[in-house]
Write a structure and sequence with these properties.
By secondary structure, the chain is α/β, with parallel strands linked by helices. 36% of the residues lie in helices and 16% in strands. Helix 6 links the parallel strand 6 and strand 7.
Length: 387
């Protein structure tokens, strides 16, 4: 089998809400072959579509003519033979190609990818909702949104407050986060897993204050309390806050995860299979986490395609914790021919060959590429904040 064409498909997917969530294009990569099979991967990188397209064009001559079943060799070629191993832009393009190769391998074998890796170690996949608030900060709206997500089948919830904060001892921000968490806990009940995403917005001292303010609410984890490259700061938060620390969505290589585990900065790894050089590298991250008695909870706030792909990792990783999924109750859930359905807080294991999904090309044509955008945050003095 040989790859004959690399095709990028962009689908405009604006996010409903109050403007505090990213609008994005779903970025799909299709690998066409001389045997008539087509592999599907995702490389969605919010607000960086042209960059990923350019990277894909730069690598295309290394991809055409290759056998997708030799995915390991192809990945070594793409990563190592252009001198610049690359950051998240190149890694996303490479991830999309790698994922499409695995889809082709499964389709050629007539089996789900997870079956090719020893089979599932669980019967279904626990899932949590992200983006379910629509970016709302008003308690009344949060309660309404929580009721809708519960009715949709979710029983675990992640939240974040996209508000600007001062870098040191911002007590107002701490109180706002605490109030939002209390509102959600009251709305979803005492037993529903609750997760907080810091989005790397805080310095380590403020992150410690935020984490300690949330300890009584029994959070499953505190995600990205500081920027991921601040390994010492994250380790300090992990030491001072009695909530498990998770990170990894912005990391692209196994070595970056290793350093966080070695410093005991995290106990939950969150590789994003659309950014971390694909499924194979994500599986390595899961094994690495297991070696440190840690867990894997794949990052996945994009389309149902990368969610379905992540389910194969969730199926085979013994130390899998919980799967992220963007709350989708509109057409975006139907971008694949058999939409994923949440039942009592779980998703079913994939069963079809490859990833077990296909794009609904009619739905794709209905939603052409848009101008994507990420919200911007500024402090009252006009200084730039991390979003």
């Amino acid at each position: 089998m040989k790859i004959t064409q690399v095709e990028a498909v962009l689908v405009g997917a604006p996010t409903p809400g109050c403007g505090l969530l990213s609008n994005r294009n779903y970025f799909y990569i299709l690998l066409h072959t001389d045997e008539g099979l087509t592999g599907l991967g995702e490389a969605t990188l919010e607000s960086h579509d042209e960059s990923v397209l350019g990277s894909l064009r730069d690598l295309e001559d290394l991809i055409i003519g290759q056998d997708p079943r030799q995915v390991g060799k192809l990945m070594q070629t793409l990563i190592r033979q252009r001198f610049w191993k690359g950051g998240v832009v190149k890694a996303s393009a490479v991830s999309g190609v790698e994922l499409a190769c695995w889809d082709l391998i499964g389709k050629a074998a007539g089996k789900p990818v997870c079956e090719l890796l020893g089979g599932a170690v669980r019967d279904r996949v626990r899932v949590y909702a992200n983006g379910w608030t629509g970016g709302a900060t008003d308690p009344a709206i949060i309660r309404e949104k929580a009721a809708a997500a519960l009715e949709y089948g979710y029983s675990a919830f992640k939240f974040s407050l996209a508000v600007p904060s001062w870098p040191v001892r911002d007590l107002e921000t701490v109180r706002r986060i605490r109030r939002a968490a209390e509102t959600i806990r009251e709305a979803v009940g005492p037993d529903s897993p609750l997760l907080f995403d810091g989005h790397g917005r805080y310095d380590s001292r403020l992150a410690i204050q935020v984490g300690q303010a949330l300890e009584e609410l029994n959070l499953m984890f505190f995600e990205e309390p500081v920027q991921p490259e601040d390994e010492e700061g994250m380790a300090l938060v992990a030491d001072k806050v009695n909530i498990p620390i998770a990170a990894g969505e912005r990391l692209t290589r196994l070595q970056e995860f290793r350093r966080l585990f070695e410093k005991r900065a995290i106990c939950i790894a969150q590789p994003d299979l659309a950014h971390c050089h694909g499924f194979g590298e994500g599986l390595k991250v899961a094994h690495l986490a297991e070696a440190f008695d840690g867990f894997v909870a794949p990052h996945c706030p994009m389309s149902p395609v990368i969610t379905a792909i992540s389910l194969h990792l969730d199926a085979v990783a013994p130390n899998f914790l919980i799967q992220e999924r963007l709350f989708l109750n509109d057409w975006r859930n139907e971008i694949i021919t058999e939409p994923l359905k949440v039942k009592e807080g779980y998703l079913e294991l994939p069963s079809g060959p490859g990833w077990g999904i296909e794009l609904d090309m009619e739905m794709v044509r209905k939603h052409p590429r848009i101008v994507a955008g990420t919200p911007r945050l500024f402090r009252p003095d006009g200084a730039v904040c991390d979003w």
